TrEMBL record:
Gene3D superfamilies: conserved protein of unknown function from Enterococcus faecalis V583, Enterococcus faecalis V583 domain, v583 domain like. The lineage of its organism: Bacteria, Bacillati, Actinomycetota, Actinomycetes, Streptosporangiales. It comes from Actinomadura litoris. It holds the Pfam family AllG. This is DUF1116 domain-containing protein. It comes from the Bacteria.
Amino acid sequence: MSGTSGAERHPLGGLLTREPVVVTAGVDVLADALADQAVRVEPVDWRPPPPGTDAALAAVLGAPGRAEANARAVGRMVTARPHLVDVRPAREALGLEPGAFLHAGPPLEWERASGPMRGALIGAMLLEGLAETPLGAERALARGAATFEPCHHHGAVGPMAGVVSPSMWMLVVEDAEHGGRSYCSLNEGLGKVLRYGAYGPEVIERLTWMGEVLGPALRAAVRRHGPLDLLSVIAQALQMGDELHNRNRAATSLLLRELAPDLAAAPEVHRDRAAEALRFAAGNDHFFLNAGMAAAKAAADAARGVPGSSMVVAMARNGTDFGIQVSGTGDRWFTGPANVPHGLYLGDHGPDDANPDIGDSAITETAGMGGFALAAAPAIVRFVGGEVPDAVAATRRMYEITLAEHPALQIPLLSFRGTPVGVDVTRVVRTGILPVIDTGIAGREAGTGQVGAGLVEPPANVFEDALRALAETA
């Protein structure tokens, strides 16, 4: 074997002749001691499974057909082909009756609703003419004058508070591969907006304009354009520095490039109103977020209902609880207390002003975008707190708890590796690594609006509870 060095022939592979690298896990004492001696250390984020989960892990991991079930679920998720096909009022698209509202996250009662959730519901009451004043709306809601249930129960998703009322216009997305439909409201922009719990006159005025001008204009453009391939837009946007949760600048530009000619040519849209709609969308870097959320919802819903699958198909927050749903356990929610995000704050706001995590927008992470694709969006890390290596490390950690790499959504900085997709409950529990979510931060008090942006993790118990439920069916 000429040309082979002694180190390569040695059974220890050169361990005694090269500089050692030590991999450590658990407590930091060993790693710190080695580092003090100038030894190169690679710490691994690992911890033993939580007490009381051994039997459930064994049952689920040993269940016949589990690997096949997960392969089927994640396969359906990554082969979904979401297309924007229409824009319609919620009363038509979802059949919402007067006094019926949807909200983000798992089920919630008024008594447990957080400040921003209450603020958004108050705003919806004012928008729909069900109350004349914020105080009157609050009193009406407290006595049960309106009904509200999760967006997810209607195939929909809503950012932050996620409140949807009958007159709000919805993006309608259809999965061309598996046939499902999903919905999301239109994006209002940033600052004092309904989804962050604000309900002042400017909020209601903007929503009224969106119902009278923006919604009909977008409907005309989408219908004239025909089905718009959202996965293609998302894939291109990832190549251009978006991660499709907190950064949608490229995706918004790509969407407007597709729709602007059809909007301008639509005979039913007056020229001035077309210009208003384009000006509003172009001035809102998050305009695509809601379309991306609906696309992610369509992909996640395609993976629902696979018996034996331990893959997560929804992660959602209502400002009080964080909830997940799993493919193999149907529509059952597993919930725990929502955490307060860590990040950067606007103006003189700080952590004391922040509400616990809120919104359905974690559907983007569920489908392999958002925090799971942070390595694709180096520009965003300073906005949510951190540096570029932190973003790369966050994405790399997510490969440890997911079932696949998305074939269409690729990250240039990782040599075009597909984004991690398909959160596996068993891997989360076994490793102790929790999904990373990048998110906006809503003010704790109703009416405040956005106070910052950052990163947040789910409560660990939701994955442990889901694991135990899966074990019961194994």
